[in-house]
Write a sequence for this structure.
């Protein structure tokens, strides 16, 4: 039986779209990535509802939520409004891509949060070049510079044609998307599961594949170093791409359910 319920929660004058998948267990807020919407969780939420109370939202400027200035604080305020209105007490948080970084900031602000799951949402490909491992891809510094510039240009072209989020909030959103959230994850005290994709997205231009190899190698290096010195961080690599939420919803649901259950046992 379909127990999905859609509604809006007001954060001041801003309507935030919410989707409940049923369930009466531990609450878990589900956060989509930049340019997406809450429907990204539709293949995962119903499975989670067997043991949890999953609630997905459209981030501001996305889906059917209202438009408002983007910042981490503003997005967190929206989540707080939803948690208060739906009486989500000590919710766990799971996020994909940008949603993973937002989940980290939720737990940083709310240390009572029992668990965080980040699905390939720890660091964007366009950050400091120190975050890459060019040797893993056989790249020189000059080649790395060129490919980072090429990737930035591709992201710029995509942003220029975006209807949601609107162009006037894209610059602020882009700054968030391109941030490195590993330092935030390191500061948390709650159990965190960092899920790393190991393959590139289909359709990636072939010339950019070495850049993504260098990116994933640098991310793996830094995540493993953090996990070795921070016992609350747990790492899992999966044989999938950044689109793992759509490629392997059953496995994603199992990872979230198992991790949250262990953290709240």
């Amino acid at each position: 039986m379909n127990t999905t319920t859609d509604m809006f929660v007001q954060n001041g004058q801003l309507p935030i779209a919410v989707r409940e998948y049923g369930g009466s267990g531990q609450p878990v807020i589900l956060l989509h990535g930049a340019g997406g919407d809450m429907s990204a969780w539709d293949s995962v939420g119903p499975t989670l509802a067997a043991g949890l109370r999953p609630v997905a939202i459209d981030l501001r400027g996305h889906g059917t939520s209202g438009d408002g200035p983007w910042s981490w604080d503003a997005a967190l305020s929206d989540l707080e409004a939803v948690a208060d209105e739906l009486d989500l007490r000590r919710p766990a948080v799971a996020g994909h891509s940008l949603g993973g970084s937002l989940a980290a900031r939720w737990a940083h602000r709310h240390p009572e949060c029992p668990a965080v799951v980040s699905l390939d949402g720890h660091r964007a490909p366009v950050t400091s070049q120190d975050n890459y491992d060019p040797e893993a891809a056989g790249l020189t510094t000059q080649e790395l510079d060129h490919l980072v510039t090429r990737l930035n240009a591709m992201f710029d072209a995509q942003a220029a044609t975006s209807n949601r989020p609107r162009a006037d909030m894209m610059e602020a959103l882009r700054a968030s998307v391109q941030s490195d959230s590993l330092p935030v994850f390191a500061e948390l005290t709650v159990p965190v599961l960092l899920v790393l994709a190991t393959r590139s997205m289909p359709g990636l231009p072939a010339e950019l594949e070495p850049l993504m190899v260098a990116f994933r190698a640098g991310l793996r290096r830094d995540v493993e170093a953090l996990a070795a010195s921070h016992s609350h961080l747990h790492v899992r690599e999966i044989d999938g791409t950044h689109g793992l939420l759509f490629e392997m919803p059953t496995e994603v649901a199992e990872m979230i359910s198992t991790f949250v259950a262990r953290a709240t046992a």
